[in-house]
Amino acid sequence: MNITVINGTEKHGVTYRLKEMFLAEFKDKANITEYYLPKDCPSFCTGCLSCTLKGESTCKDAEYIGKIDKSLLEADLIVMTSPAYVFHATGAMKAFLDHFAYRWIPHRPAPEMFGKRAVIITQCLGSGTKSAAKDMKHSLSWWGISKIGIFTGALMSDIVWEKLSQKKQAELTGKIQKLSRKFAHIDYTKPAHTNLITKFKFLVCRMMQQSIHQSDPEYLDGKYWAEQGWLDSGRPWK
Length: 238
Known about the structure:
- By secondary structure, the protein is of the alpha/beta class.
- The chain has one domain: Rossmann fold, CATH 3.40.50.
- 41% of the residues lie in helices and 15% in strands.
- The chain has helices at 14-23, 50-53, 62-74, 91-98, 129-142, 166-184, 196-215, 220-228, and strands at 2-7, 31-36, 77-81, 117-125, 147-155.
- Strands 2-1-3-4-5 form a five-stranded parallel sheet, sandwiched between helices.
- α5 (129-142) links the parallel β4 and β5 (147-155).
- The mean pLDDT is 95.
- Residues 1-146 form the NADPH-dependent FMN reductase-like domain.
- GO terms for molecular function: oxidoreductase activity.
């Protein structure tokens, strides 16, 4: 199997350690490709809309985005990690997710995404883990992914692993290993189930794309949906 990891920071702190614990179950059975932000996606999205109106290859950062997009599409499991900064994912993670607006269901979602699984790993000192995880889950779910596991670790004494109490270290370790074992025992030869919320989003967007395609057959998103067969009876899930 293939795993693609998007690290929301280049720092090797607690989030990195938790991610390594999660991946330990997969080391001997998976090809793991990792990207570190902002190094592997160093530029901000400028909101030029070129990716949605003209195609993702016209993005000014296509050399970075195309490589990561290919890796995501080939992955059986996507892992996203980010510590919580001011109650949200890192700025580098947000900049990365902005680049993939064209992959949202209202635009040109990849059919492969609807059968994938994903895991989110986040932690912080005090509060903010849930809202940080939500930042990443929003994009994953709007890419078409239904099966998303979430790990949130709230630290109360320090943000350095070695300074945490043995009790807290054991608690975090046990929690991440439990999630890891859960995802390690999945049969990845079978696509994940697409839930009703995702199907509803798709069908609403389908009605929108039908209308747009009728009024403007050359509009890129509508043409894409037509080519996929989604404006008729075709669906991206099985």
